[in-house]
Amino acid sequence: MITFETRPDAYHHWKLTFDGPVATLSMDVREDAGLSSDYRLKLNSYDLAVDIELADALQRLRFEHPEVHAVIVTSLKERIFCAGANIMMLRGSSHGAKVNFCKFTNETRLAMEDASAHSGLKFLAALNGICAGGGYELALACDEILLVDDGNSAVSLPEAPLLGVLPGTGGLTRLVDKRRVRRDLADFFSTLVEGVKGKRAVEWRLVDAVAPRSRFKDGVQARARELAAASDRPASGPGITLKPLNPTVTDAAVTYSAVTLALHRDKRTADLTVHAPAGPQPATPEAMLAAGDQFWALRAFRELDDALLRLRVNELEVGTVVIRAEGDRDAVLAVDRTLVAHQSHWLVREIIHHMKRTLKRLDLTARSFFAFIEPGSAFAGSLFELALAADRSYMFHDDQEENVVALSPMNGRLRAEGASASPAEARRDRMRAEAGPLLMSNGLTRLQTRFLDRPETIAGLLAHDGPFNAGDAEDAGLVTFAPDEIDWDDEVRVAVEARAAFSPDAMTGLEANLRFAGPETMETKIFGRLTAWQNWIFQRPNAVGAKGALQSYGQQGRPEFDWKRT
Amino acid sequence: MISAEKIPNNVNLSGNKRLQRALEHWQPKYIQWWRDMGPQGFQDYHQVYVRTAVSVDPEGWAHFEYVKLPEYRWGIFLADPVHDRRIGFGDFFGQPVWQEVPGEFRNQLRRLIVTQGDTEPASVEQQRLLGQRCPSLYDLRNLFQVNVEEGRHLWAMVYLLHSYFGRDGRDEAEELLERQSGNRDKPRILQAFNEPIDNWLDFFMFTMFTDRDGKSQLMSLSESSLDPLSRTTRFMLTEEAHHMFVGETGVARILERTCQLMKEAGFSGDVRKLGGIDLPTIQKHLNQWFSLSLDLHGGEVSSNAASYFANGLKGRAKEETFGDHLITNSHYSIEFFENGKAATKDVLMRHAMNEILRDWYVGDCAAGIERWNRVLEQHGMSDRLTLPDRKFNRNIGMYSGFHFDPHGAPVSNNDWERRRLEWLPSVADSEYLLSIMATPIYEPGKFANYIAPPRRGINQQSIDFEYVRTEA
């Protein structure tokens, strides 16, 4: 079983050091400390274990070190920055393991860009030596890239020419979309095993600058200080400590304080339940700092994130997940109000963006999600996002007992058009909806994505007086179906049974195509186009067949290809 | 409003809130449909001596009384459960049968039930004008018995839709009343149920051949892994048997009368001149309805049928008589027709399920033809009725698009057009039949000239019993 929790003093592969506003994250992969003993992680090549530590370091920089404004990403190995994902690891991995590995590494790279865009945490890639494949893709996820100019060190994306696969961690997308490298140059570069170095790398915008070995360290430090100076993070801490989640793990369930993942492997289903806050929650940033990682909004979403990751990599056959939110919906709405009111505070900002990333993790999880909204549920505000993220939602229509869903400013905000204050009715008419903070990878909120056909109705939903009962929620399009007590048991049973019986591949493709309506972003291109093609290639004999390029690399000479193109 | 007294049942209707609510909505629509689309002219002022099923034991479903048709007590009955019943065929062979619909098969099962259910009201609609041309009160009563039981079979399918298929099931139950036989915009699902049945020879042939298709479908559904479907269809089969009795004896009585008239005419004379129905006309109608009913069994090679079998949804008639219930690797010989030639080919047996059911059906029909021919034999006639070859006049399956004569020999398009009316009823035949049926016979004990009286009455009543009476 793979777990995702770690801490800096347990890292095998990274060193995290601090020097005022600049932290240095140094890669120093231990060859024998990968997830499997079947391969050795030579030349700073990485597997999922290495990336789990990177993801952990990024989280801790955001929550534990608000005083850090810039991060240098470099290597402790002489003349080697990073050789990319370990080829022997890829060769030995099942298809599902490859896909999950790529997905997690992509999410981690995007988390770096998220920190840069929203947390004032800038990343400088200090490439002290060869930087190939996934190594260069890690550099591409940084804000700037400085390459040592030693006549030898180059950046490269050798996957296609060498292994017959793609640079699958966003490399192709970031070359042309983020760094705006001209596509013909990107084409040439991506077929060049030895890569590009020195002046040409700068000219082609593959890196931002080069520096000779003698001036490299100083140059890196100087540039890092400059990047740090532009940050809006606080000058000093303290941060909060992310302590272990300590879930209770049994064969049938993973149980956290606010999240439960109950597995029904015989039915290939799971119940994922998130509990609303119980007990008093901090109402000010100061109180949140005091509460630390025990504040519900952080704790529950860390737990949810961990549960999703465990589900992905450890429970490959559990394909259909029923999501429930339980507890006091008013407590959720109160937390939401607190968050929105103090969102300019660095910690509140981190908490909100963490919620956002966790919900994106749900969007990107290749399992079918159905939300079941039953009496006593707490699908309100930020937890209602779970229902919006689900592929379908079923809301129990009960005339006896209250069963409602509610929106909060976390789902979207109302802004008055013009300055004049006027009576409530008139004001509502001139309110317009703005995006809430919980954006999907398409750059829209889930409400915006849901109502692409009629964006003008969102303001009305946000201005709705109080929660929605099942009938209203169904009419408003906030839930999929609202069966009553006579139909409920049968409808939801059949829905889950039917879903769990479909081809898992077809469901993965279907969901990935339906979940992300609306505009493209670099993120949707990475998870849509790049990932889909990569996953196709991962299944093809030209890569993974006995004589395929990935299999034959370094072993039996030239690969044998099926030359037909589609 | 929905009461167990008005709706005889053995499904615990009074304790089933879901079913009650669904029926409260549906039942008034059903009564309205019966009034609009049921027997025309016999809704309000006639009482019919019919059998009403009030329970599943032998006395219970042989309960006779006079009722006004719209007040008939349509009920809901399941045959008694079989202890520890196991799935008898397909990939789930040997597992306990299902008391609930598995989510995986909900749509397939719903489709099967809707298709079966759609035929029930359709036949009532097709036959709605027949009462006004009836050959006797005895036959009129039989027609209405068939009609109310087709109505009850609709209830049986609606019960399943209401109980096991949620909102979709309720919607489908309503649509069963919205489609109408022959309606251009919303026709019945199967084409054979969109042709009106306006003369009694067609009616008897329909109940002989098309209701027998109903019987084979019900037999295959009674093998289903979904136990409520199995139990419902098992009880329906007891009623379906009566419908075939009506058809088989109806034609036999026409044959009887035809033989008598042939004797009067000195064997060589034209039976039509004496107001009877000549043997070639009977043979042509037999050809027509047998071939139409063959089509109802579906394509010879069918992946749907294979899937139904694999999933245990629909089996073979009398599955227990077969040795191999999995037939994963067995093959079945089917006569293909390619490049103008017939050739036998093996197909995977699971794909041949429709054809296997058709085999059973053809055998069952052949036995009926034998019995008809005995009438001719008893009268010393040398003529015999015959079942046409199964390739003849087909519009569904691999023989559609080609033409064959009733012996199964291929014929050209030109020959088909030239000779078609030797084998199938013509407009003139139909006009003739309507002409001899124009005046209905409503006098107890009297029979139209073209049909002999039955050997005995219904429920041990005499032949001249007033089976349908007009209210004072």
Q: How would you describe what is shown here?
A:
With 566 residues, chain A is α/β, with parallel strands linked by helices. Chain A folds into 2 domains: 8-229, 2-enoyl-CoA Hydratase, Chain A, domain 1 (Alpha-Beta Complex); 250-509, Alpha-Beta Complex (2-enoyl-CoA Hydratase, Chain A, domain 1). Chain A has 23 helices and 23 strands. Chain A has a 7-stranded mixed sheet, with helices on both faces. Chain A has a 6-stranded mixed sheet with strand order 1-2-4-7-9-12, with helices on both faces. In chain A, strands 5-8-10-11 form a 4-stranded mixed sheet. In chain A, helix 14 (381-389) links the parallel strand 18 and strand 19. Chain A is globular, with a radius of gyration of 24 Å. The mean pLDDT of chain A is 95. With 472 residues, chain B is mostly helical. Chain B has a single domain (13-470), classed as Orthogonal Bundle (Ribonucleotide Reductase, subunit A), CATH 1.10.620.20. Chain B is built from 11 helices and 5 strands; from the N terminus they run H-E-E-H-H-H-H-H-H-H-E-E-H-H-H-E. Chain B has helices spanning 17-37, 106-126, 137-164, 166-178, 200-221, 227-264, 279-295, 303-310, 353-378, 413-423, 427-436, and strands at residues 46-52, 63-67, 331-338, 341-348, 468-470. In chain B, strands 2-1-5 form a 3-stranded antiparallel sheet. The radius of gyration of chain B is 23 Å and the shape is globular. The A-B interface holds A 481, 483, 486-487, 490-491, 493-501 and B 17-18, 21, 100-104, 106-107, 164, 166-167.
What's the topology here?
The complex is a heterodimer of chains A (566) and B (472).
Chain A: E1 14-19, E2 22-27, E3 45-46, H1 48-63, E4 70-75, E5 80-82, E6 84-85, H2 87-92, H3 95-119, E7 122-127, E8 130-132, H4 134-140, E9 144-148, E10 154-156, H5 159-163, H6 171-178, H7 183-189, E11 196-197, H8 198-203, E12 209-211, H9 213-229, E13 248-249, E14 253-255, E15 259-264, E16 269-275, H10 285-291, H11 296-314, E17 320-326, H12 329-341, H13 346-363, E18 368-373, H14 381-389, E19 392-395, E20 404-405, E21 412-416, H15 424-429, E22 431-435, H16 446-450, H17 457-462, E23 468-469, H18 470-476, H19 488-501, H20 504-514, H21 522-537, H22 541-544, H23 549-552
Helix pairs in contact in A: 1-3, 3-13, 3-21, 4-6, 6-21, 11-13, 13-14
Chain B: H1 17-37, E1 46-52, E2 63-67, H2 106-126, H3 137-164, H4 166-178, H5 200-221, H6 227-264, H7 279-295, H8 303-310, E3 331-338, E4 341-348, H9 353-378, H10 413-423, H11 427-436, E5 468-470
Antiparallel strand pairs in B: 1-2, 1-5, 3-4
Helix pairs in contact in B: 1-3, 1-4, 2-3, 2-4, 3-4, 3-6, 5-6, 5-7, 5-9, 6-9
